[in-house]
TrEMBL record:
Protein's name according to its UniProt entry: Uncharacterized protein
Record's compositionally biased regions (Basic and acidic residues): 172-181
CC annotations in GO: mitochondrion; ribonucleoprotein complex; ribosome
Main location: mitochondrion
Positions with biased composition (Low complexity): 87-106, 154-163
Organism (species): Glarea lozoyensis (strain ATCC 20868 / MF5171)
Length: 187
């Protein structure tokens, strides 16, 4: 049987994926999200990096059919962009006679967003603007109950670990005193 701490850790991770910023169900027309941003710790690429680490995971969790690709550059001077590939509702039945500049030959509309120096919340808002029909996932009563239980368990673990730390410190001090007494008795 797996330990309680490991199960609690996995459940916490799952709850972080299930609810929070980025917990959005996108319309089925949104097929792909591609991001370009820098590997470096450039402040103008911090928002895209945070979005990639946190919100994109939640987006992918709630939209398993969504393809997500990332291209990371080495220079902080490079642009940070996000590209959304959105299928037009008529693309399956009636391809356009004259494709526009932002439509590929497969009937996909491509929207490019400049995400440099933007926060993760701003990036999410932009995605929702370009993909109308997306809806945010709110925490259910059951989710809130689980979160409260996890917090309570974490508090009790922190309290017991502090008590153990105090006991260990007291035992170490007693051991050192005993060693000093023995050393004084030998001399």
């Amino acid at each position: 049987m797996v330990g309680v701490a490991k199960r609690m850790s996995k459940l916490t991770e799952l709850m972080h994926l299930k609810i929070g910023d980025g917990a959005i169900v996108l319309p089925p027309e949104v097929r792909k999200i591609h991001m370009d941003f820098a590997v470096t710790k450039d402040p103008s690429h911090a928002g895209p990096r945070i979005f990639w680490r946190n919100q994109l995971r939640r987006l992918k969790y709630h939209n398993p059919r969504l393809e997500c690709t990332i291209a990371r550059t080495t220079s902080g001077d490079d642009p940070a962009t996000m590209t959304l590939h959105i299928a037009s509702p008529t693309s399956a039945s009636d391809p356009p006679a004259t494709p526009s500049s932002d439509t590929t030959d497969t009937g996909m509309r491509v929207e490019k967003i400049d995400i440099k120096s933007r926060g993760p919340g701003s990036i999410l808002e932009e995605i929702l603007k370009l993909a109308p029909g997306g809806r945010k996932i709110e925490a259910t009563e059951e989710d809130l109950k689980v979160i409260a239980e996890l917090r309570q368990m974490q508090k009790s673990q922190n309290k017991s670990s502090k008590q153990n730390e105090v006991r260990n410190t007291a035992a170490r001090i007693e051991k050192e005193k005993d060693l000093l007494r023995r050393g004084a008795a030998v001399s």
